[in-house]
Design a protein that fits this description.
single chain, 675 residues, alpha+beta, Transglutaminase
């Protein structure tokens, strides 16, 4: 179908094409951070052709070039993502096909279709990001889409932009109550849609279940949030904030792994002979795609759908693919039960690269001390008094990193100290293991909680001492502060957040930026708690407060249907009142259309007042002044935010003198309609 065969009133106008193109670009901008560059490049090329075609229509491709572009778009997405599975591949294909639809905007119906698909694209964004700022931005884009649909269906034109915006705002506000009701009452999935593993190829940054030189020092440069913590009482001091994660037993001399397959799970793994300084808190953990649940050393209680491993590590039943909230009680002072024989043996296994000078060092300590704990203190004293340095940029180590670190480079990060200390303890006959987790946390005074970042990643050791059980030892903290080089690090060794930011807070601009960051994170936390984290349990709690706690699946369905019926009734009553208000006005406008129809200028179906008036004025220039006066009265009264109650009477008076002739006066030459 050619453009000449389409009635002029059904053809999209250039401003409308520009509007829909810019709206699609605005809706697609956030996806640029998540899709491959090839997809963005294809999108931009097609948009550039569409915009250039507004000036040079010959640039619009015909049927065969358009088929070629379609094949290129499909192949681009297929090759980029190696198939169709996953949300990234599906989104890439969808946005590639959607942008090609811009080449086929021949009718206003095509504009309506693209506007509707942009609405779907807005929803797709939340598969990748659910931040409040993105939601606010997409809400603005959605409002612009509604405004465009109002313009396409009513046709008020750019001169009546205020009236168009008013109608779009009224429609949006009318949808809010029903949206809120559905948000609270709609039966919820056990996990949000974006956490259902739709894109297995997407990686998540964060802590690993293994450790080797350089692994944690790279993670420390990661500025992403790991989790938030709200304490029921006063939070403990910074040096007590050890957030326990994976426990590592086996090493090949370079890399540590859990190695828990050979260790039994029998017995009471979390039995404590004594515990004090109990503390309860709530953790909101960011997605990790792992089963680890971090808790203060040492957790006592186990959250729902989780268990405590024999190594005192909290583990969820399923990988954490969306933000998860859980409540834990920990004992800051404790004594564990004696370890089982299998774990004692695992804690004494040595790597194959033990050197003679490592043995001589341990033998010297053993000859100078009376018991195991004294030997532990001797090792810490060695790290403190010898020329050991803490640095985020240690020299590269060779085939035997433990020996080279202890006797040659003596420069390293927490993984170097934890690895060397545990190997030395095992060499001395003391069972030891490595623990990964986080140390510290930044206090957000705006939101009243702590923020633990990926940059707070840490590794420490645990040794088995007779009569005391497993005891935490942090060899990194033993380094003399005078030999700490924190260049490039986001935190200083063992320092509290207030010390870490001392230099930044000396500058007023830095303090202001930090306050904004805290406000922003508080907004993210509230958004997570009240919107994204609104779970089935939260829904039931709200129903309890509303005295609707007895409702379950069927009751919720009945309540939703009742609410929908009530909302529909309110809208119908409002529509009836609106019709009663505009009935005289519509009657006058209908007489205007009837008189034009008598002379062969009948209004077409789906033709708005503005388009109709333009067509009549082009066909009969002699009627253009009368048509303009009629529309000047009718449009503000029908679609304006504050209609004139006297408009119907004014329009009726004007129509008394409006008696168009079938043939135009000879002095005025008719203008043929636009092609």
């Amino acid at each position: 179908m050619t453009m000449r065969s389409i009635p002029p009133s059904e053809r999209p106008e250039r401003p409308q094409i520009l509007w829909i193109t810019l709206l699609l670009c605005a809706a697609a901008v956030p996806l640029g951070w998540h899709l491959a560059p090839q997809i963005s490049a294809f999108f931009l090329v097609v948009v550039a052709i569409r915009l250039a075609a507004l000036r040079w229509p010959a640039l619009l491709p015909g049927i065969w070039p358009l088929i070629g572009l379609t094949l290129i778009g499909v192949a681009n997405a297929l090759i980029t993502y190696q198939g169709w599975s996953g949300q990234s591949a599906g989104t890439a294909l969808f946005i590639s096909m959607l942008v090609l639809k811009l080449m086929e905007l021949r009718r206003k119906g095509d504009l309506r279709l693209v506007a509707t698909l942009i609405g779907f694209l807005i929803v797709v964004q939340f598969l990748f990001d659910q931040s409040p700022l993105l939601a606010l931005y997409l809400a603005a884009v959605a409002f612009a889409v509604v405004t465009l649909l109002v313009e396409l269906n009513i046709g008020l034109g750019s001169r009546r932009l205020r009236a168009t915006l008013g109608i779009a705002a009224r429609l949006s506000l009318q949808a809010l109550p029903l949206t809120l009701v559905l948000f609270v009452l709609f039966p919820r999935l056990s996990a949000p849609l974006w956490s259902l593993g739709l894109d297995g190829g997407r990686g998540m940054t964060g802590m690993s279940d293994s450790m080797e030189p350089g692994a944690i020092s790279e993670l420390v440069l990661n500025g992403e949030l790991a989790f938030r913590v709200r304490f029921d009482a006063s939070p403990p001091s910074a040096e007590q904030l050890y957030w326990r994660g994976p426990v590592l037993w086996e090493t090949d001399g370079r890399r540590w792994t859990p190695g828990s397959e050979a260790l039994p799970d029998a017995g009471l793994p979390h039995a404590l002979e004594s515990a004090s300084e109990h503390l309860q808190y709530e953790v909101t953990l960011e997605p990790t795609d792992q089963r680890w649940l971090f808790a203060l050393d040492l957790p006592e209680t186990v959250p729902a759908e989780a268990h405590l491993s024999p190594d005192y590590q909290l583990l969820a039943r399923e990988p954490i693919t969306s933000a998860k909230r859980y409540v834990v009680t920990s004992a800051l002072a404790y004594r564990t039960a004696p370890a089982d024989p299998a774990r004692q043996a695992a804690g004494l296994q040595l790597p194959p690269n033990i050197t003679p000078r490592m043995r001589r060092l341990v033998e010297r300590w053993r000859g100078q001390t009376q018991d195991d704990w004294a030997l532990v203190q001797a090792a810490l004293t060695h790290f403190n008094q010898e020329d050991f340095h803490y640095t985020l940029l240690p020299p590269r180590l060779g085939a035997n990193p433990t020996d080279e670190f202890l006797f040659e480079t003596r420069r390293g990060f927490c993984e170097h100290y934890a690895n060397s200390f545990v190997v030395l303890m095992r060499l001395a006959g003391i069972p030891a293991r490595v623990v990964l987790g986080y140390l510290g946390g930044e206090r957000n005074r705006v939101g009243g909680y702590h923020m633990v970042w990926q940059s707070d990643a840490h590794a420490w050791a645990e040794v088995l001492i007779a009569g005391r059980g497993w005891v935490r030892v942090d060899p990194t903290a033993a380094v003399n502060p005078a030999r700490v080089d924190n260049r490039g690090a986001s935190r200083m060794l063992g320092a509290s957040p207030s010390v870490r930011f001392t230099l930044e807070q000396a500058d007023a601009l830095a303090r202001f930026a930090r306050t904004l960051r805290l406000f922003g994170d508080s907004l993210d936390a509230a958004w997570q708690d009240w919107v994204l984290g609104f779970s089935i349990e939260d829904q039931l709690a709200v129903l309890e407060r509303l005295r609707l706690g007895e409702l379950r699946e069927y009751g919720l369905v009945v309540l939703m249907i009742s609410t929908g019926a009530l909302t529909l009734a309110i809208l119908v009553l409002g529509s009836i009142r609106e019709r009663q208000r505009v009935a005289p006005l519509e009657a006058a406008y209908a007489r205007f259309c009837q008189r034009l129809a008598r002379i062969g200028l009948a209004r077409r179906a789906q033709e708005g007042p503005l388009d109709y008036g333009r067509r009549v004025s082009r066909a009969r220039p002699d009627l253009a002044p009368d048509v303009a006066r009629v529309l000047e009265i009718y449009l503000p009264a029908r679609y304006g935010p504050a209609p004139d109650p006297q408009a119907a009477a004014a329009l009726s008076r004007l129509l008394r003198a409006f008696r168009p002739r079938r043939v135009a006066p000879r002095a005025v030459r008719p203008v043929s309609p636009m092609p």
